[in-house]
Structure formats: C-alpha cells, structure tokens
Amino acid sequence: MQTAYELGQSLAENDVELIYGGATVGLMGAVADGALAAGGKVIGVMPSLLTEKELAHKDLSELIPVQDMHERKAMMAELADGFIALPGGCGTMEELFEVWCWAQLGLHHKPCALYNVDGFYNKLIEFIHHAQSQQFIREEYTRMLVVGNSPDEILQAFRSYQPPADKWRDRSALKPATQDI
Fold first, then answer.
1. Which domain holds residue 95?
2. Terminal-to-terminal C-alpha distance of the chain
3. In-domain check, residue 179
4. pLDDT of residue 167
5. pLDDT digits over 83-107, tens only?
6. What number of other Cβ atoms are within 10 A of residue 148's Cβ?
7. Fewer CB within 10 Å of terminal CB in the chain, N or C?
8. CA distances from residue 18 to 4, 105, 130, 140, 171 in whole angstroms, order as listed
9. Are both 100 and 118 inside the same structural domain?
C-alpha cells in the first residue's frame, strides 16, 4: 500500500494526471490518495453498480459515471496517455493484456508498463520471453512493454517511449498470393 501511495505522489509531482477506476479501496485507492495528497489531478471512471455500493472515492478531482465495466475500460483507455500495472490479480492482468494487445494492433500508441515491485512480475516477464522464444510474441512487442522497479524509472521510459510500427502496417502481406491457373 505504501508503494502504491508513493506512486501516486510521484505521478502528481511529475504533473501526471491519474486516470483510474475511481474506487477508494485497494492499491489503486492508495495511488489516488497519494496523488491527491501531493496536489495531483485524479479522475475516476466508475460504473453505476459500484458507485451504488459506495466504493467511489469522495475526494477525486472528477468522477465520471459509466454504465458498465466495458464502458469504464474504454473510457479509461481513451483518457489515459499510458498504462501502469501494479501488482495485482486477474483484473489487473486482463486490463494490462488488453491495452498491450491494443498497442500491438496499433489501436493506440501509448506505453504500457509493469511496475515490478519486489520482483512481483518476474515470472510473468519470464513467461513473456518464453512466448517470444516460441514465436508467439514478436521481439518488438516484448520490448514495447516497459518494466520498471520505480516510478521514476517508468516515467523516464514513458517520456522516451517510441512505439513500434503497427502490426498490420503492410496489409498486402495479409493477402494470399495469386497464381496463374
């Protein structure tokens, strides 16, 4: 929780606006608290179902209500300039892999990062490199996933981030070759 709080502080100190799910609980609630304590702007995006359960953070700069989780993720992806995954479970993995996949497809050109707190993501990083060695992930897409051990390391990588060319940049490669019959 302390590391998450410090991430929020670091984001605010670097004039990075936080876009997140809007809850007051969990690690992301701690990131929001840290950003707010450091004078940062924090925008939450929350479906009405969760707002009704009183999970919404009361001190946000702005809370954007949406209908459901799909709209929430789409709105956060649209508003954000980059994505950082703290240690987490299946929801974190699902969101990370979705935005990373979207980046590979060229649907956005925003950096995606793993905040590798105390080596939390070491096994996942190992798996990603394994998938690359088995030719399921291109090396350029492995490299596009930023891995950092501190907020400063991640933010520096974001500042210098250059996305690879879009995956389907050469549409002619997708067309079957024609043969004379």
1. 82-161
2. 67
3. no
4. 67
5. 999 999 999 999 999 999 999 988 9
6. 18
7. C
8. 12, 25, 32, 27, 36
9. yes
